[in-house]
Amino acid sequence: MGDTDRRGWDAMADLAARFVAEADLACTLAWLADQCAELLGGTAAGVMVIDAQGALDVAAASSGPARELQELEKRHFEGPARDSFHAGRRIDCPDLAEADDRWPRFAPVAQRHGNAALHAFPMALPGRTIGAMTVFLADPGALPGEALETGQTLANLAAIGVGSYRARQNEILAAQLQAALHSRVLIEQAKGLLAERLGIPLDDAFALMRQHARSHGRKLGDIASAVLDGRLILAGEPTE
Predict the structure, then answer these.
(1) Are 121 and 85 in contact (CB under 8 A)?
(2) Measuring CA to CA, how many Å separate 162 from each of 62, 97, 124, 147?
(3) Contacts of 152 (CB under 8 A, 6+ apart)
(4) Mean pLDDT computed over 20-33
(5) Of 23, 107, 192, 202, whose CB neighbour count within 10 A is largest?
(6) Rounded distance, CA 227 to CA 233, Å?
(7) Is the pLDDT of residue 181 over 80?
(8) How confident is the model at residue 117 (pLDDT cuts 50, 70, 90)?
């Protein structure tokens, strides 16, 4: 195994580990952009990923100019990452000087930043593409086949990582919403029980529980649960 191959495998292993251990998706994708630019011999690299509405958005870039180019793609709906995302395949541009008709806004700006060629790799999951990773090159010409395979593998791993991360976030959000709903039900039940027991309005019963929660540094849902199962007896009128 050559040094380039070894570095590629190391980057893949590191990327997988980061998606498991890193809580910040943006940091992982920024690391990926830096690694891709260095590993594939590019001037820079960038990552674009769909947002919650399904629109392609800038996720990470290894340099300011690379981020500017991705922002340009987002703003003008034109460029290699967008083409790769929509086509679901790698987009190769061995000479940006010949791409003015293809990307009239993007290509001239990319050249002004010192880029002469590029490759955009789709970030694909089964049945759908969730983004694209673009590597910019200083000289005209295409990357060798081994480098292209490495780039596509990293893009595929990134797609799996992003998909898994978002699935975990959705599970966490669903659990939080369920907990909030359960807490609200408990609070409403405890409010009714306390109002009936003390012969006070519902609003006063709620204020009494809230006052006790604040003064004892506890969650309102915990106070409601204690009232319902008899572990906490509240009496009197709220002072708030």
Answers:
(1) no
(2) 18, 33, 11, 22
(3) 90, 121
(4) 78
(5) 107
(6) 6
(7) no
(8) very high
Strands 44-50 vs 128-137: parallel, antiparallel or unpaired: antiparallel
What is the C-alpha separation between 206 and 122, in angstroms, rounded?
54
- Domains in the chain with CATH codes: 3-166 (3.30.450.40), 172-228 (1.10.10.10)
- For residue 54, which phi and psi values (nearest 5 degrees)? 85, 10
| Count of CB atoms situated within 10 Å of the CB of 206 | 20
Class of residue 64 by CB neighbours under 10 A (exposed 0-12, middle 13-18, buried 19+) = exposed
Inter-helix orientation angle 202-216/145-198, to 10°: 120
Which range has highest mean pLDDT (47-56, 111-120, 175-184, 186-195)? 111-120
Q: Is residue 200 within a helix (H) or strand (E), and if so which, with residue range?
A: none
